[in-house]
Amino acid sequence: MNEALSARHLLGIDDLTAEDVELVFRTADGFKEVLARPIKKVPSLRDITVANIFFENSTRTRISFELAEKRLSADVVNFSSSSSSTKKGETLVDTVNNILAMKVDMVVMRHADPGAGVFLSRHVDARIVNAGDGTHEHPTQALLDAYSIREKLGRIKGVKVAIVGDILHSRVALSNILCLRKLGAEVVLCGPTTLMPRYAKELGVEVTHDLNEALRWCDVANMLRIQLERQGGDGIANFPSLREYAMLFGLDRKRYEAIGKPIVIMHPGPINRGVEITSEVADGTASIILDQVQNGVAVRMAVLFLLAGGVDRTPKA
Ligand code: NCD
Prior knowledge:
Layout (H helix, E strand, L loop, with lengths): L17 H18 L13 E6 L5 H12 L3 E6 L11 H10 L4 E6 L4 H8 L3 E7 L5 H15 L6 E5 L6 H12 L3 E5 L15 E3 L2 H7 L2 E4 L18 H8 L3 H6 L5 E3 L12 H4 L6 H20 L9
Helix pairs in contact: 1-11, 2-11, 5-6, 5-11
Bound molecules: N-carbamoyl-L-aspartate (NCD).
């Protein structure tokens, strides 16, 4: 069996074949076992240096990657935009060239511009992992979401997933759609018309604006965060009020119980509690939100380990 990824970088989900995704999952299964041990560290990335470059805010993704790298014994450096020279007018390429001059092998990058990772991969000689590029993609989130569904339901093929909320501004939505469709799941998008991209149907998914209908249909509901920072204006330019949004598209216990069957509840975090989901549902027994966070470390370990398999370890001049 070929135990290498067909991709050199992970910039978007379509860098991976379905076989690649399966390999990431099998590898993550092994790392999950490691993470359950008293000593959670393996030497797999010893002598590999990883730079985490975050030009946009992040808490859980940054910590998850850093933990994954440290569990693999990589050397880790962290840059964030507030402390780097990009604030002084340095370009993205300059920043990264400087980092690479310090012999960094892999870069994990979050950036506000869609395509920033692709741009970087064309200019620098390191493996790039996209940790979110604006409203475009967030491939490791989609991998950990699909992995968590597989863990909970034992399969992904044929599973019905409703992705609910601010699809238009969500990089999690696009990566999830591409990943789930690649693995044979059925996907329905649900949200207000103003938060639904026009190209939605071209991605091979159905669209509904009726949350109750979507919930009755699905096995899994992924309740996305309203991306308040990306709406423009006062933060709610695309719908009348958060209260109305919560009434029409929020998931509370009453709505959950009315579905009449158990479904799996997911959320990528951070949660606007009481808007897209109430605390009762987010913290209830149907929710796998904390499993998603836990699986994120193992899945990111798998991605980094597999991509590093191709890193040239011969001494550099
Ligand atoms: C997501 C993101 O940053 O795109 N969060 C995350 O990675 N933990 C989703 C979100 O911010 O809503």
